[in-house]
Amino acid sequence: MTSARQLFDYLTTRITNYPLKEKQAIVHMLLNHFLRISNVDVLVDRPIAADNLQPDWEDVIERLNRNEPVQHIIGSEEFCGLKFTVSPSVLIPRPETEELVRLITRDYAEAEEKVTILDIGTGSGCIAIVLSRFLPNAEVHGWDVSENALKVAQENAFRLMANVTFDKKDILDPGTNDAVPAGYFDCIVSNPPYVTYSEAEHMNPNVLRFEPHEALFVEDQSPLLFYLAIALFGKKTLKPGGRCYVEINEHFGPETTEVFVKHGYGQVSLLKDIHGKNRFVRASIS
Question: Which Gene3D superfamilies does this entry report, sorted A to Z (predicted)?
């Protein structure tokens, strides 16, 4: 292909298993990553220099048509304006989770004293790292049960110059409660596993086949397992006035809210995402 538009049209035609708008978005990501070709370059049909090193496009097309996420092919995803390394060991950051981060940054933007934050199930570290970067008074910790995920998170923190302390800890382990002093944290945030296995049949194969199931799914019999553990942990480890923020399954909004109400939290709010779906719970310790 000798021009941006020709290459864009060729790739869009050859990718077969996505709707048109999604295919176009994927191709724009590929062109920008591999050739620094922008959307405007495609519109004006900028020539591609003959010495411009290109990937094996047939291999890229084949991987996409096997439902491998484009983020795994290019190795990164943008989140809150920062570029995060991703791999099959971590969830690919989603726009909804950006909204969760914005809730926290708005609430703590004017904090003058140190704010101690814990991100439970940190994965790629995207939540913890953005909070560390955007809240100058924050002391941020990130926990995960996966050593491979923690390696990705540590790599991201180093590259993005974020000061986050990462540890391998399991919120479902009863001993975790005893490892943290009472009243230590100002803020606990988590995007825990919340998709039930019965919902899996409605999910895209690029998610089911290439993202870690331990970060996605919970048993149908206990869909609120992680929220209960987080609520109990927060009740002990949050300071008076401390807050807990969680991303949730849209089908269990009132039920998740009730978990925090029953365990003594006040000002419990069920909040919607940009699509109007129940997506977050914010709760405070009095």
Answer: DNA helicase RuvA subunit, C-terminal domain, Vaccinia Virus protein VP39
Query: Does the pLDDT value for residue 174 go beyond 90?
Result: no
- Beta-bridge mates of residue 104: none
| DSSP structural state of residue 179 | G
Please, which residues bridge with residue 284 across strands?
Answer: 243, 266
Q: What is the mean pLDDT of residues 149-158?
A: 98
Cα–Cα distance for residue pair 46/77, rounded to 1 Å: 25
Cα separations (Å) of 230 from 39, 192, 216, 238, 245? 43, 9, 16, 11, 10
Separation between Cα atoms, residue 281 and residue 100, nearest integer Å: 9
Q: Is the pLDDT of residue 1 over 70?
A: no
**Is the overall model pTM greater than 0.85, yes or no?**
yes
Q: Give the Cα separation of 279 and 101 in Å (integer).
A: 13
Instruction: Give the CA count within 13 Å in the CB-facing half-sphere of 241.
Output: 4
Tokens describing residue 231:
């609520």
pLDDT in tens, 139-150: 999 999 999 999
Phi-psi region of 284 (alpha: psi -120 to 50; beta: other; left: phi over 0): beta
pLDDT tens-digit map of 198-222 = 998 888 888 888 999 999 999 999 9
CA dist 243 to 12, 24, 247, 281, Å?
45, 40, 14, 10
SS3 31: helix
How buried is 226 (Cβ within 10 angstroms: 0-12 exposed, 13-18 middle, 19+ buried)?
buried
Q: Give dist(CA 117, CA 102) in Å, integer.
A: 14
Yes or no: say if 86 and 71 are a contact pair by the CB < 8 Å rule. yes
| 117-130: pLDDT as tens digits | 999 999 999 999 99
Q: Which residues pair with 143 in a beta bridge?
A: 120, 167
Identify the CATH number of the domain defined by range 88-285: 3.40.50.150
